[in-house]
Amino acid sequence: MTISLNDPSLLKTQSYINGQWLPAAKTFSVYNPAENSVIAEVSDDGVEQVELAVAAAKTAQQQWASKTANERSQVLMRWHQEIMNNQDDLAMIMTREQGKPLAEAKAEIAYGATFVQWFAEEAKRVNGETLPSPSPDRRISVIKQPIGVVSTITPWNFPSSMITRKAAPALAAGCTMIARPASETPLSALVLAELAERAGIPKGVLNIVVGTDSRGMGKVLTTHPDIAKFSFTGSTEVGKKLLEQCASTVKKVSMELGGNAPFIVFDDADIDAAITGALASKYRNTGQTCVCANRLLVQANLYDTFVERLAERVATLKSGEGTQPNVDIGPMINRQAVMDVHSLVEQAQQQGATLVAGGKLPEGQSNFYPPTLVSNVSSDMALAQTEIFGPVAPVIRFETEQEAIDIANNTRYGLAAYFYSRDIGRCYRVMEALEYGMVGINAGVISNPLAPFGGVKESGIGREGSHYGIDEYLEIKYACFGDIDQ
């Protein structure tokens, strides 16, 4: 399969280091998960190329940081415009290599571009302060400076926006970056490098290294002494290992890890709005998102009605290859992901859960798992305790507000939570009681660049987006001026 683009020169297949596309010594195949067909052969680089990228980033960092905030802002605004001007092609690349419907891919491109735009503006708002002096002969100032060279490892489920959400604040702050995208979706990362070059981002400022040696490349990105900050989005298990490696050089870290998001529907909720929100939260990107509703908790006297009506809506969801019209559900990323999800559904049924919709293993090597709804799920089942990462909605019954809170908080994760209620008092009580970094109240989709994205407990460290996001790439320096003449 080939990818048909308006601008074929956007399809890049080599690592981008120090403003150059490196010739490939060897390659690996990138597949379209909808058809299991090869769409590109991409450079299979490794440790040596990562070290080259670190050297390039270190060399470029001081000069990039010396530019005024306004100069960096203007470059980033041009990058934003390049992304939006090529939105259709970037979406097509993403759909082919990741599988999500084209409309969702276009939405992700726009969402990712908003981070570039937002942090282009935030670059001009990195402010210091002057503090009251403890003595008349001294003055105290605080300034913020870029932390230096930054490295990142990004996932396959949002292959464009997970890079811009990290690169934009880093570059706005005056840092340089080395990114290692997931080997399932390298094309969406490489096209961003091409557009960054067209926008005038200097060589060495943004470097993207692609390859399959995740362990070796990750080791360099987390232990190299010239890297000051490491940012990761991925599973909690992998994040813990990377965090341990970062400790060897005491790097500053940002970790956006796994989730087990509860979606609570109280009996005073607007049931139509709750069902619409549940569909959007659960089945977006075929359920392959860290913030999607992982467990639906529905109050007892609303439970049967909610399940029945949700099943009716689930039955209308259309699965198919992402470029087909009106497709809601694309393929899962690979066959192993399909098997893992199906195993959870089968295990839940063996434990007494009821399959309401879907749940059939696709034949052959197909990656299209049907939108699935499972009722009579208990909170101790693996289906309710595991990050499903697929189009499966388990529904749990609860009696009281406190029981819902207890079930929701009974997890090591704390990324996102959602609930529906029309009682303003309950909205405040439940929001404050939920042990999560983000809470959607009568809203099933909550991400935007103005808000701080991140979790608590084993769901991560730090925040992305918002005015807090640029602080992750800055160091605070205190200056004490003595011997001031009076």
From TrEMBL:
This is NAD-dependent succinate-semialdehyde dehydrogenase. It comes from Pleionea litopenaei. The keyword Cell inner membrane does not apply. Its EC number is 1.2.1.-. Keywords: Oxidoreductase. Belongs to the aldehyde dehydrogenase family. Coiled coil: none annotated. Signal peptide: none annotated. The active site is at E256. PANTHER family: SUCCINATE-SEMIALDEHYDE DEHYDROGENASE, MITOCHONDRIAL (PTHR43353). The keyword DNA damage does not apply. It comes from the Bacteria. SUPFAM superfamilies: ALDH-like.
